[in-house]
Write a structure and sequence with these properties.
Low-confidence stretches: 346-350
Number of strands: 26
Largest sheet: 7 strands, mixed
Distance between the termini: 58 Å
Strand order of the largest sheet: 6-5-16-15-14-7-8
CATH class of the largest domain: Alpha Beta
Helix content: 25-40%
Bound molecules: iron/sulfur cluster
Length: 716
């Protein structure tokens, strides 16, 4: 902390958490108020850079719509009537309800869930384990977990491992080739452990060869030497087409393949099903481009593959990621300088003990709602699937959940099939939520708790992998009665009569124990860099931690779980190829979920300067397609799928295939009426009214949010 006596301003060094990242921040505080936020130039990764979201944090801190006090429902669910209550009444009511349900139906009738991790996921899982329920979940099945889990079974590694290009670190090696696959890492700090937006931007402009796979002409595509405009949902076919070229032209690393992989011959046989011409038919990328990309990637001395979240929202997610891993493996780009590496000091990996999984008995773990499905994701400590939780409320099968405790989670906007989410939330016996604002989901709760944001709490930025730790510091005095999520969970556990060895301070101390440092050690700098003695090719000493001790091109784990051990392409359930009849009525391929500058999924639409960047929801459409449909640039249009229709404004772009449209995701309107039927305009433009949870990746339960069919027509 630095003090500028002249201006009476104190500068607190902290770590931003307006998204997943962790950019170093200098928070200027005058008379107890945040007056300015800027990047911390000393921060080893972000080096003074912050994006517009981070720089707008003070507007979020002081926003008049932020929740300030606990409230209980005073009318019917969804009627928008609330009564302010004290923390004791709020927490005792939730604890009492949970205890009664636990006694009568067993702890498994309670589920706790979190949306995107805001450094509260592990703590919420800890609460679940303490109160004895196996039913805890996040949206991890469509974000981050599939990549990590697939890496685990293919090449070993743990948690924050393997995928993350260390080139973003100042001390690492730039690859010759960067292959960005379904990622807009330049926009935001994505689901990696690093604040990588700034690193990615630098790298994209420095590497000799940048290949971008994306259906849209993104910033990344604009910088690319080669842009592959893949049909949404056809990524596995593209990867297999590239593998066909790499293998048949013998562009792979023979030494690595021979010594360190299994199943090469089987993979070779499998990729014969995907010659470039066939892959071109499936992917809508020309055979020439597929060949060029394969050669460019495989003949580079070093190459990094940076995958985004898009490939985790397909019915073929597992096989897509397996195909990409095979590409990294056979080209010898695994765990080498300038390649995809495994972190040897994984902060999150070393702190999973904090989740206290040993408090849950194996018998109770077996009662987890998804324990017999989607076996790749539900084995081990991976959480259950939120749609399954909601389905159990709707159907009572295999048993009904009776209490939901959500924390920073807005499934009415962010989860697939809004109508079904709504029905489940209306039906559940009791729901409580800790939130920053009233959201369409919070409007359906019985109790709402006001949560603190990153400037209002002491916290460790646990997601920093490898280079060190960041901290967040409580920068301002108490605002209303907002509390940190960690405090809320700890209080709930206690009020349910359970013992927890740690309160918030204790939890922080426990987390830092392995590094031998304390929170106070970091207050001055806002972070600590740990000495790095990174070792590459760790497998040479210990092999890969897979059943065969090899990099598994042929996955023994997949085979043992009853899934295809070799990668293959699977058509999206709705596509011009898999459902040509449906495509007659819904002729356009709809993809969703591209990053929107200034927003983080469903967040920040109430912050004026960020909303100004995106006042209305936009659907991107090719002008030729729009012309045929009589749609003008900026017109409001209906987007309709078999599940419903919503409105967005047409935005012309030639950067899309004319057969594809891209709609912005997670729209709601905080300014709209809160009571039903509006629920802050949740039915108006929210693209998840059109998506579904029924079809899912068989191993990981990922929903096809990125590839469905729709029709588009002008709002008259
Ligand atoms: S990229 Fe993320 S962590 Fe960095 S400033 Fe923006 S919101 Fe904050």
């Amino acid at each position: 902390m630095k003090s500028d006596k002249k201006s009476d301003t104190v500068i607190v060094k902290s770590t931003c958490r307006m998204d997943h990242g962790g950019c170093g921040a200098l928070v200027h505080v005058k008379e107890g108020k945040v007056v300015k936020i800027e990047g911390n130039p000393e921060h080893p990764i972000s080096k003074g850079w912050m994006c517009i979201k981070g720089l707008s944090s003070a507007y979020h801190l002081y926003h008049p719509d932020r929740l300030g006090f606990p409230m209980k429902r005073a009318g019917e669910r969804g009627e928008g009537k609330w009564e302010r209550i004290g923390w004791d009444e709020a927490l005792d009511t939730i604890a009492d309800k949970m205890n009664k349900v636990r006694e009568k139906y067993g702890p498994e009738a309670i589920a706790v869930g979190v949306g995107t991790d805001r450094n509260n996921m592990s703590q919420l899982y800890r609460l679940a384990n303490i109160i004895g329920t196996p039913n805890y979940f996040s949206e991890g099945h469509v974000c981050y977990v599939p990549k990590v889990r697939t890496l685990e079974i293919t090449a070993g590694g743990h948690f924050d491992a393997g995928w993350f290009p260390r080139m973003y670190y100042p001390y690492d090696v730039m690859p010759e080739c960067l292959l960005s696959w379904g990622s807009q890492a330049s926009f935001t700090s994505d689901d990696s452990p690093h604040p990588c937006a700034v690193g990615f931007r630098g790298a994209a402009q420095k590497v000799k060869k940048l290949i971008v796979v994306d259906p849209r002409f993104t910033w990344e595509a604009s910088k690319a030497h080669l842009w592959l405009k893949v049909r949404p949902g056809a990524d596995a076919a593209l990867a297999l087409g590239m593998l066909n070229v790499i293998i048949n032209e013998e562009l792979y690393d023979k030494g690595f393949v021979e010594k360190w992989t299994n199943g090469f011959e089987q993979l070779k046989e499998r990729v014969q099903e995907y010659p470039p011409e066939k892959a071109a038919e499936i992917t809508w990328v020309s055979a020439e481009k597929i060949i060029e990309a394969a050669r460019m990637y495989a003949t580079s001395k070093t190459a990094i593959l940076h995958p985004g979240v898009a490939i985790e929202q397909l019915v073929s997610t597992t096989q897509t990621i397996r195909a990409l891993l095979c590409m990294i493996g056979i080209t010898g780009n695994f765990d080498i300088p300038g390649g995809n590496v495994v972190c040897d000091r994984t902060v999150k990996g070393t702190t999973s003990y904090l989740e206290l999984h040993d408090r849950l008995s194996p018998e109770m773990a077996k009662k987890r709602l998804t324990s017999d499905q989607f076996k790749l994701i539900t084995s081990g400590f991976w959480p259950m699937i939120p749609a399954i939780a909601l389905n159990s409320i709707l159907t009572g099968k295999p048993y009904p959940l009776r209490v939901l405790f959500y924390s920073g989670y807005n499934p009415m906007v962010c989860a697939a099939n809004t109508k079904k989410v709504y029905e489940a939330l209306k039906k559940v016996e009791f729901m409580a939520i800790s939130e920053l604002y009233m959201t369409p989901t919070a409007e359906l709760a019985d109790i709402v708790l006001p949560a603190a944001m990153w400037l209002e709490k002491d916290e460790i930025h646990l997601n920093q992998c490898d280079w060190g730790y960041g901290i967040r510091q409580k920068t301002v005095g108490q605002i209303d009665e907002r509390r940190s999520d960690w405090w809320i969970y700890s209080e709930l556990g206690k009020r349910m009569g359970e013992s927890d060895p740690s309160d918030v301070e204790g939890y922080i101390a426990e987390s830092l124990k392995p590094a031998g440092i304390t929170f106070d050690d970091m207050r001055e700098k806002g972070f600590v860099s740990l000495p790095h003695s990174f070792k590459y090719k760790k497998y040479e000493k210990v092999g890969f931690s897979t059943p065969s001790k090899k990099f598994e091109l042929y996955s023994n784990v997949m085979e043992s779980l009853g899934y295809d051990p070799l990668p293959h392409h699977l058509e999206p359930p709705e596509s011009p190829i898999s459902s040509p009849e449906l495509a007659k009525e819904f002729p356009l391929v709809l993809t969703t979920g591209g990053r929107v500058k200034g927003f983080f999924h469903s967040e920040f639409r109430q912050i004026k300067n960020l909303r100004k960047l995106n006042p209305d929801p936009f659907i991107e459409i090719h002008p030729d397609t729009a012309g045929d449909l009589g749609i003008g640039d900026g017109d409001w249009v209906w987007i309709e799928s078999p599940r419903g229709r919503v409105q967005q404004r047409a935005k012309f772009t030639t950067g899309l295939d004319p057969r594809v449209v891209h709609a912005q995701h997670n729209w709601w309107f905080p300014e709209d009426k809160e009571a039903e039927p509006s629920l802050h305009g949740v039915w108006k433009s929210n693209i998840n009214v059109l998506t579904d949870w029924v079809e899912a990746d068989e191993a990981m339960s990922c929903n096809p949010l990125r590839s469905l069919l729709c029709k588009v027509y002008k709002v008259e």
